[in-house]
């Protein structure tokens, strides 16, 4: 087995990017999720069009909707205006930029005041950022905000081999330090944890490592964890699948993670139900099982599972 893939190889295996406009977010939506006190919050999520992330993680496909250079100085604020003119009022806002909000080469700190001026009505503002880029810029942005800041960081997995081969340039300790830095300054932490990262191909082991990673995130101070089932589609993932280093997870695995992690009682757990059709081959139960997971995301309670003849262990 070789030592994994580096930036050059990962980029060389990619297909073309989508055409995006630096003044228009590539997507936005209105959703609901529980607030930290359990009340249901309305959330506006804006997927900003920004500069491609400096990291090149093995499983990432966010580069598809990015620019090669930073968006012009005023463009991020204009994108927020574009989305908010089309979205209803909400309690919280997520600004996801397919990279790291506090990467100053992607978003200049000089743009923070104009961005923040668009966010005055929100109680909570969520941005995404790599743990190694959690620094004084987070504090600077937080100081300007009226609402509470939450930083979403990918821990991905704490499996030593899988994490080092993800090319994320991260250790669990880096994550823990970043989480402590943020929570120590009154900033909440949300964490992304993967189900079936490359190099974890035994279903039982994979579920167990996802659960361990969630526990590690909570122990480090995260208030919530979002579980992302790893999908193919970025070039290198197809190669890994052919090599036997990646298998797509099943819906039953995702259900087991959710059913178990909610019982930890350590923090909120969400599973990403966006485009999870690839997890199931049964048209009879898929929609009902997806709806069950969405209801559990919202209520944070385990509800009875959906019976179907297709369901066997990890079916
Ligand atoms: S740090 Fe995040 S956005 Fe950047 S390559 Fe990794 S997963 Fe993708
Ligand atoms: Zn079924």
Provide a short characterization of the protein structure.
The chain is 32% helix and 17% strand.
Describe the protein's architecture and organization:
- It contains 10 helices and 8 strands.
- With 315 residues, the protein is an alpha/beta fold.
- It has a single domain, classed as TIM Barrel (Alpha-Beta Barrel).
- The chain has an 8-stranded mixed beta sheet with strand order 1-2-3-4-5-6-7-8.
- Strand 4, helix 4 and strand 5 (148-156) form a beta-alpha-beta unit.
- Helix 7 (203-219) packs parallel to helix 9 (251-264).
- It starts with 6 loop residues before the first helix and ends in a 16-residue tail after the last helix.
- Bound molecules: iron/sulfur cluster (SF4) and zinc ion.
- Zinc ion binds at residues 282, 284-285, 308, 310.
Helix content: 25-40%
**What is the CATH C-level name?**
Alpha Beta
Regions with pLDDT < 50 over 5+ consecutive residues?
A: none
Order of helices and strands: HEEHEHEHEHHEHEHHEH
Distance between termini? 29 Å
